[in-house]
Request: fold
Amino acid sequence: MTIQLRQICLVAEKLAPVIDDLTSILGIKSCYVDPGVGAFGLENNLMPIGKNFLEVVAPTQANTAGGRYLERRGGDGGYMVITQIDTLSEHQRLRQRALDTGVRVAHESTRDGWELCQLHPRDMVAAFLELEWDAHEEFEGHWNPVGGLGWEDKVCQDTTIDFTGVELQSDNPLQLAHHWATVTDLPVHMENQLPSINFNNVTLRFVEAIDGRGAGLGGLDIKIKNKHAILEEAKKRNCFISDDQVDICGTRWYLQED
Reply:
């Protein structure tokens, strides 16, 4: 079994200014807008980070799941950890494993060559965990949430190269780590004295929630090529935290030089 982090989704009160900050600071480009999210009272924009993706959604009407999440966490922030599973049989096994663990399915969809299963954020505590299988079974190619193909020419790695980690926070990080490990059928290990789980391409790191926002997807690790450009633009946009961290869309971005 292989689990690839293929996409991170953030939620924002207003879409346009967040997309402007992300593209300007991280040096990435928009590649796709999915009109289908309108059915959930949302609008979105997707950007490739390497061969993986960053999505931002924002409510367009009252009383949406995204809007309630914004209220619960006190503003913009992390929303979904979206994974690609290598085979259909493994996708179905993990789906059943989640159900057997008592995790509810918040939404699922079956289409020709595509299986999507969103696990409920209350049951996963810190974020939606989405399990997807794509019949092309390509971790660096075809991806249905961005329309399949056609995004490749929007990849720009001059400044930001790729995701390397996800930081999930709660009052009990070790307990949360073991819960995510049970659902994903992966072991917990200690890395820099923090409970962690390794996906194929990133490490999930579980930390104590000390920012007053409760459990959630609090931070992302990214491999970068041009720290100076990121920090200078972050300072202009009041997103600078330190020489190793910026804050965009209520999310801590930890900068790891290549």
